[in-house]
Amino acid sequence: MVSEINNPTIESPQQWSTEEGLKFTELIRQQYSNCCFSAGVVQGDDVDTVYLKLEKVKTNPILLLLRPDELAAIAWVSTGVVWSLLLEQLPKSCTNTAKS
Question: How would you list the strands of the sheet with 35-43, edge to edge?
Answer without folding.
Answer: 15-17, 23-31, 35-43, 50-56, 62-66
